[in-house]
Amino acid sequence: MPSRMLVIPRVKRRIIPPVMPAKTPYGLEVIDSCLNCPVHTERLFCNLTPSVLATLDSISTSSLYPRGAILFVEGQDPRGVFILCSGRVKLTATAADGKSVIVRIAEAGEMVGLPGTISGTPYELTAEALEPIQANFIPRGEFLQFLRKHGEAALKVAEMLSHIYHEMTQEVRYLGLAHTAAEKFARFLLDLPSVAGHDAAGPVRATLTLTHEEIAGMIGTSRETVTRLFASFKKNQLVEVHGSSLIIRNKADLEELVER
């Protein structure tokens, strides 16, 4: 009797596709809570005690905005404040002839719309996203009540208002005290915050993330003028630029430009 062959059925292999990370709008790493924010201790207003942060979370509404989104416009009644979780926002003032100047650039962790919200007067500037951003919006009534109940948060707001005042006085120096575009540009470079830990005796190192057009908006000149000044300053070995890193090679000569 012929022997029977044992047939082993072929098992169909199931291929499990790899788990792909969920895509988020605009490529942002979404922060779902102030309590879970990985860098909240590094940010002025967000560095609050857990119980106060929990209250802040409960009155905030988080949203994502694309580059160019307008958070509020100059002259609009103050609806509330925006806390920037990520990204940058430019704050501009516009003249009757349509010309605008960038008064300041708000970074992640800062708050925009604060002066008008506190005083109840119309927003004094227009806030526009320079890049995709995540921001927490807090209505004016809830925000003022929050500050009345939490003294530590009110103190943080006072610090932020002081910071805004300092930046506004710098803008006055750029536009009102400088006589030439070169002097305005030199003032701007000298006012850049230096990178932490740099050698005080060596060249000044700073991070510059603004475009030539944005710098022009801050010092009241044209993009072409800023590009020309960068080329001139580099040719004269006053500065070096490597991507977003800027090195001031000759601080003394820059200061001389300002003092003329």
Question: Which structural traits does this protein have?
Answer:
20% strand, Arc Repressor Mutant, subunit A, 8 helices, alpha+beta, four-stranded antiparallel beta sheet, globular, Jelly Rolls, 260 residues
Concise account of the structure shown:
36% of the residues lie in helices and 20% in strands. The chain is built from eight helices and eleven strands.
Cα end-to-end separation: 114 Å
Give me the number of helical elements. 8
Task: Look at the structure and give the mean pLDDT.
Answer: 81
The share of residues in helices is 25-40%
Structural class: alpha+beta
The outline comes out as globular
The protein's oligomeric status is: single chain
| Most strands sheet | 4 strands, antiparallel
Order of helices and strands: HEEEEEEHEEHHHEHHEEH
* Order of strands in the sheet with most strands: 1-8-3-6
The CATH superfamily of the largest domain bears the name Jelly Rolls
Low-pLDDT segments, ≥5 res: none
CATH class of the largest domain: Mainly Beta
The proportion of residues in beta strands is 15-25%
Please name the CATH topology of the largest domain. Answer: Jelly Rolls
* Annotation, overall tally of beta strands: 11
Radius of gyration: 25 Å
Q: Please tell me the total number of domains.
A: 2
Q: Give the second-level CATH assignment, the architecture of the largest domain.
A: Sandwich
